[in-house]
User: Which sequence fits this backbone?
């Protein structure tokens, strides 16, 4: 359980079946991570530099890009380092830090998607009141709340986990997750379980809010062609993002609680990293390439930079 310095260490066993192809996995992982960082940073800069994109929907999308970089950066550096190491270990402090960033990413993603559902509801169901309701100050408040609420949720959960006395150090996963650490406890974990149910209830409430919002959005969008076009352009990408993230997260939770056996390690690895790998890469494609306004501004900025380079 400890290394030579006496620090408690966790053993990560998710890469046990990947030793023979580690160079291939490393190359793929590095390319995907670089592409993820590049496309997200490029679109963040595009939104920041273009005042025409300083509208509520695009600011929420920009927040998704920032959050995606945080989630990807909590996963890729460690897994890439492990691919070139014979011992896949992580310190107790490093494990808690990874748990903190990943869970903050998850909670922030869900809360931001909820805020985006509210924004789309107001835009389609109350178009004449949209600018009076979704003021700049209100958007800032929603973004601040999204991060503060996510940080608070994660801080409490990580603090409760840090107080547990552990009787093991083996984690059958590619990265540290809260549930896997809690399972190693040899003390009572009732408080952790209760807090877990509180978090589940909180985000189920968000899911219910989103569902109700979209039922009303669909009804309103059927009344006119303009609203149907607005629904197809802005709501469909949001629904794709929401469904992808929610389904992959549910698969990971089910796999963490009920997936047993080394023979299923490859499947568990795929299910366990999908919500960390796909959304940060998929969101820029869905919103950056599919949404006309962002795509136009991106192409305009790219052409401007290209001309400046050619002139020099």
Assistant:
């Amino acid at each position: 359980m400890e290394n030579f310095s006496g620090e408690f260490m966790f053993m990560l066993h998710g890469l046990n079946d990947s030793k023979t192809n580690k160079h291939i996995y490393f190359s793929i992982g590095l390319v995907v991570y670089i592409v993820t960082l590049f496309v997200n940073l490029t679109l963040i800069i595009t939104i920041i530099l273009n005042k025409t994109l300083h509208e509520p929907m695009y600011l929420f999308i920009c927040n998704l890009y920032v959050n995606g970089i945080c989630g990807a950066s909590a996963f890729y550096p460690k897994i890439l380092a492990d691919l070139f190491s014979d011992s896949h270990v992580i310190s107790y402090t490093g494990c808690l830090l990874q748990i903190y960033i990943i869970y903050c990413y998850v909670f922030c993603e869900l809360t931001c998607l909820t805020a985006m559902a509210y924004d789309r509801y107001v835009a389609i169901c109350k178009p004449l009141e949209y600018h009076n309701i979704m003021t700049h100050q209100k958007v800032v408040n929603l973004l601040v709340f999204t991060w503060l609420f996510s940080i608070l949720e994660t801080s409490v959960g990580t603090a409760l986990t840090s107080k547990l006395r552990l009787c093991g150090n083996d984690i059958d996963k590619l990265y540290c997750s809260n549930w896997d650490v809690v399972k190693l406890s040899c003390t009572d974990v009732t408080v952790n379980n209760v807090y877990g149910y509180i978090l589940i209830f909180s985000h189920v409430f968000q899911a219910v809010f989103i569902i109700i919002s979209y039922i009303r959005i669909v009804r309103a969008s059927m009344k006119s062609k303009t609203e149907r076009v607005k629904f197809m352009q802005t709501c469909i990408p949001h629904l794709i993002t929401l469904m992808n993230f929610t389904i992959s997260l549910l698969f990971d939770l089910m796999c963490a609680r009920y997936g047993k056996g080394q023979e299923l390690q490859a499947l568990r690895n795929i299910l366990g990293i999908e919500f960390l790998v796909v959304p940060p890469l998929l969101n820029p494609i869905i919103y950056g390439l599919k949404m006309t306004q962002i795509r136009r501004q991106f192409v305009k900025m790219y052409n401007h930079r290209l001309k400046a380079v050619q002139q020099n």
